[in-house]
Design goal:
Layout: H1 22-29, H2 42-52, E1 65-69, E2 75-77, E3 84-88, H3 96-109, E4 117-121, E5 127-132, E6 145-147, H4 148-151, H5 164-174, H6 179-195, E7 206-208, E8 220-221, H7 253-258, H8 263-272, H9 278-299, H10 305-322
Antiparallel strand pairs: 1-2, 1-3, 3-5, 4-5, 6-7, 7-8
Helix pairs in contact: 5-6, 6-10, 9-10
The structure holds adenosine-5'-diphosphate (ADP) and magnesium ion.
């Protein structure tokens, strides 16, 4: 059985590519004609990423490349108007690409709006993570978006310097009081906690405006991005809880009692941001219901076997803690 490198679902026999479902492929690349294999090898990428990413707005921590599709349907590095971002596994974290792809899809299963993403191959077969840019839907007009560290008017190296509670309050202010957006943010924090993604800092959440919005307010979060099972690397067995403190005034009595976050803490966070407990409880119930699907998907993923086991264990353990106090 082969699983799709985009959807992680079974690939039917009659598909164009052995390891991609036609529908998933078309939705990510627009056409079945696109070649899912890069002409670049992994070592050549190292050279190219220096050349093509200078001054790029997508700079983050990891090396990446901006890609476009040529007239002959080849994915190729470009300096302007890239429609895709390519993130290969860093040398010190093998299989990070497969890990990120799987972690992103766990969010999708839980109803989190997620950047379109998948895995493609370098010429020498190594897989790389690819995501379609959500700030350029038609490749002409750029959608305005802003990360939370900018929203706080702080320099980017202060991306760990606020709590999620403060970030939630900022989202409330930046959207003119849209509680649905604040709730979506809390769900994303809960998802990060669930999969052991301990790097969801202020630069890994952004807000965007709809194209016709000329006001200073933002409409919604961008689709979710930059998510990892941080504990599922052999050189990283100790996974932290969360990148930021959950609450402004230190840990709750329940945290002090258990020594880790529980559902109670997320209900408390919601309360501080004016959101009732109910949608927090429903989100936990939703995870409980979808646990078999999440575990199945992890096992169909392209991570290595040990990574799959770690990732499954993290989810089961974190779900146990999320179910306390909700
Ligand atoms: N699909 C996407 N479309 C548009 N912008 C994106 C997308 N994914 C990430 N970005 C932007 O690029 C930046 C770097 O990407 P990210 O995945 O966070 O990489 P890193 O692991 O290096 O931090 C993000 O902070 C975000 O602003
Ligand atoms: Mg990032």
């Amino acid at each position: 059985m082969t699983y799709c490198k985009i959807s992680l679902k079974t690939v039917p026999k009659a598909s164009k590519y052995r390891d991609y479902q036609d529908a998933a492929f078309k939705s990510l690349f627009g056409s079945l004609k696109v070649n899912p294999v890069l002409e670049l090898s992994r070592p050549a990428f190292k050279q190219a990423s220096v050349r093509y990413t200078t001054g790029l707005s997508i700079s983050g921590v990891q090396q990446k490349l901006s890609l476009g599709i040529t007239k002959s349907h080849q994915l190729e590095p470009v300096t302007t108007n890239g429609q895709y971002i390519l993130k290969p596994s860093p040398e010190e974290f093998p299989n990070a690409a497969e890990n990120e792809h799987t972690a992103m899809l766990t969010g999708h299963i839980l109803g989190i709006r997620t950047a379109d993403c998948g895995l493609i191959s370098f010429a020498d077969d190594e897989l790389a993570y690819i995501t379609r840019r959500f700030d350029r839907p038609d490749n002409v007009k750029k959608i305005h978006q802003e990360g939370l560290v900018q929203g706080f008017d702080m320099p980017s190296d202060r991306k760990y310097d606020k709590s999620y509670e403060a970030a939630g309050a900022l989202i409330n202010a930046m959207t003119g009081g849209k509680q649905t957006v604040v709730l979506e943010y809390i769900h994303r924090i809960m998802h990060a906690y669930l999969v052991g993604n301990d790097d969801m800092h202020l630069k890994n959440t952004s807000l965007q405006k709809f194209p016709n919005n000329t006001t200073a307010l933002y409409d919604q979060l961008t689709p979710n991005y930059d998510c990892l099972f941080a504990g599922a690397f052999e050189n990283q067995n100790e996974v932290g809880f969360l990148a930021l403190d959950l609450l402004d005034n230190g840990f709750s009595a329940q945290y002090e009692h258990h020594g880790y976050y529980t559902g109670h803490d997320f209900v408390e966070l919601a309360g501080k941001l004016g959101i009732p407990a109910k949608p927090i409880q429903s989100f936990v119930k939703n995870i409980e219901r979808k646990l078999p699907q999440l575990i199945d998907m992890i096992h169909h993923s392209y991570m290595r076997d040990e990574q799959k086991v770690h990732a499954g264990e993290i989810i089961v353990d974190r779900l146990r803690t999320l179910s306390i106090g909700v």
